[in-house]
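hey so i finaly got around to running the thing on Pyridoxal phosphate homeostasis protein from Sutcliffiella horikoshii. pasting the sequence first so u can double check i didnt mess up the copy paste, my clipboard has been acting weird all day
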Amino acid sequence: MNQPSVESNLSEIQQNIRYACHNVNRSVEEVKIIAVTKYVSTERAQEAINSGVKHLGENRDDGFLKKWDAISNEATWHYIGTLQSKKVKNIIGKVDYIHSLDRKSLAEEIHKRAEKAVKCFIQVNVSGEDSKHGLAPEEVPGFIKTISDLYNIQIVGLMTMAPFTEEEELLRNCFRGLKSLQQEIQSMNLTFAPCTELSMGMSNDYKIAIEEGATFIRIGSALVGNEQ
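ok and heres what it spat out for the 3d tokens, dont ask me to read them lol
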């Protein structure tokens, strides 16, 4: 069975973004779509680029490198999965954003390997679920201070994964928690941690995430589908 085209999926998502932004008086320019291509082919990822998507996200170094070799500088690349320190050398210099910074040892490895500052999101486990990676919200300000001397790390924002649920209030509380934490970090006025971005919202909950302040939404199945 043929999948819908990325172009038609993108059109629907953009309409939903406009609606969500209108609901809370935000500009659509504030929201960027990351096409999460981990479950699709390089050809499908290229289709996303051809449809006007500028950001691609991968969560494994082998999948990322395969697509990067084919597409390279046509896209802005986001590494959105758990990143082992030993894998940093494989992606550094190729990836534009890392969404899963959650420990000092990883920050030190990125700093050591990078030739210029890397844009990083701190992964925060707002929901407190055991199945999810990330720092507890109360740990984030202290963690940021411990990496202040790592000049190749720039904390551009925070990332979270909400519970997989249809309970809207649970989702809103999760996204609001990240927004509140972002405001706390911004009030610290740290040049290496401007924390202007929020990476939150996926195929099932991105409309709610936008209403609560998301600036990057990570869309896989609703945009590019799943070929596995």
